[in-house]
TrEMBL record:
Keyword match Phosphoprotein: yes
Entry GO terms, CC: endosome membrane; plasma membrane
BP terms from Gene Ontology: endocytosis; endosomal transport
Listed name of the protein: EH domain-containing protein 2
Organism for this UniProt entry: Engystomops pustulosus (Tungara frog)
PROSITE patterns (UniProt xref): EF_HAND_1, EF_HAND_2, EH, G_DYNAMIN_2
One GO MF term attached to the UniProt entry: GTP binding
């Protein structure tokens, strides 16, 4: 079992693995109450929900609105098999969560390796963008999440008040207190049902019954307070009136703070999302040479370039894209390569820019990372001259 906590935007991510060696579900429950987003990771080619993983997921009860699911490495299975895997995952999650809400599942290949089966490339691209946008908008939605947490806690307080007052009312004043206490604790599920019907409370508002029974063992029911109806009325007014007044203010705040999104690092200027590239060793090749490092392979790149039938010495974005996707690299990587290669930003590639793109593709296929900006030694010679004359 693995877990990663990003403190600034409070993202909790975990996937199934080995034994943690401590009470991992309790740790998860503590984090789940404090984070904005919980992401469950599954691999499409080895889908399983072990008993340990199921127990950890059950620790997230009450936080279903924060949960997102990622079906990763979906490029390793054919489309028909992927449909079966998706259906099996939803069925398994439905048994674990036991809620009417359908969890949002993002399907894709969230790494920078070549796609083994590229048939669903467009689907993976759209799913990655949706997940990326969901994470980016976490700061914007944080106020709404805090309000939802307040509502959840207020409803829990109300239920606790009804439970405690019921237990106190049922206790005898003098004799057989111990026996009555044990009886009430054993009958707690029935008491839950009575309170639910009498006060029209949703079952989801009640605390975990087994845990409540365990905690009640150490308390003296005769010292519990009686129900204060005036305080319940104040709480109900807060839930029905005051919260309703806050909702339009939060929506307006979201509209006014359009720049309140996750920024920095991989979130600046690309659609790569929070997915890390490999080492940069391949990019450093030729940094000390006088000759452009791409020159030695340019003849073979030129052959491909002219076979693609350029117009006025340039390939359109469509023609270049159709060739680039044959490398089976994810769209997030190819988009970054395009951004680095289209040096003059005209939306097309000349022979040097195409050669540069081909070189960067080979660098990526060799397992190396890509830089955020094009290094000086990789700038095509003709573009260097243009830059120098412009200056």
């Amino acid at each position: 079992m693995a877990m990663h906590y990003i403190n600034r935007y409070a993202i909790l991510i975990f996937s199934c693995g080995g034994a943690a060696g401590y009470d991992f579900p309790s740790v998860l429950q503590w984090f789940a109450e404090r984070v904005d987003r919980i992401i469950l990771l599954f691999d499409a080619h080895k889908l399983e929900i072990s008993d340990e993983f199921s127990e950890a997921i059950r620790a997230l009860k009450g936080n279903e609105d924060k949960i997102r699911v990622v079906l990763n490495k979906a490029d390793m299975v054919e489309t028909q098999q992927l449909m079966r895997v998706y259906g099996a995952l939803m069925w398994s999650l439905g048994k674990v969560f036991n809620t009417p809400e359908v969890l949002r599942v993002y399907i894709g290949s969230f790494w920078s390796e070549p796609l083994m089966i590229p048939n669903n490339r467009r689907l993976f691209e759209l799913e990655e963008q949706d997940l990326f946008q969901d994470i980016q908008n976490l700061p914007r939605n944080s106020a709404l999440r805090k309000l939802n947490d307040l509502v959840k806690r207020a409803r829990l307080v109300r239920v606790h008040a009804y439970i405690i007052s019921y237990l106190k009312k049922e206790m005898p004043s003098v004799f057989r207190k111990g026996n009555k206490k044990k009886q009430l604790i054993n009958e707690l599920p029935v008491i839950y049902a009575k309170i639910q019907l009498e006060h029209h409370i949703s079952p989801g508002d009640f605390p975990d019954c087994a845990k409540m029974q365990e905690q009640l063992m150490i308390h003296d029911f005769t010292k519990f307070h009686s129900l204060k109806l005036n305080m319940i009325d104040i709480l109900d007014e807060m839930l029905t009136v005051d919260i309703a007044k806050l909702m339009p203010l939060l929506r307006q705040e979201d509209l006014d703070t359009t720049d309140n999104v996750v920024q920095g690092g991989a979130f600046d200027g690309t659609h790569n999302g929070p997915f890390i590239e490999g080492s940069m060793d391949g990019i450093l090749e030729g940094i000390e040479d006088d000759e452009w490092v791409v020159t030695k392979d340019k003849p073979k790149y030129d052959e491909i370039f002219f076979n693609l039938a350029p117009t006025d010495g340039k390939l359109t974005g469509t023609k270049a894209k159709n060739w680039m996707i044959t490398t089976k690299l994810p769209n997030s990587v190819l988009g970054k390569i395009w951004k680095l290669s289209d040096v003059d930003r005209d939306g097309m590639l000349d022979d040097e820019e195409f050669a540069l793109a081909s070189h960067l593709i080979e660098v990526k296929l060799d397992g190396h990372g890509l830089p955020p900006e094009l290094p000086t030694h990789l700038i095509p010679p003709s573009k260097r001259r243009q830059k120098g004359s412009a200056e």
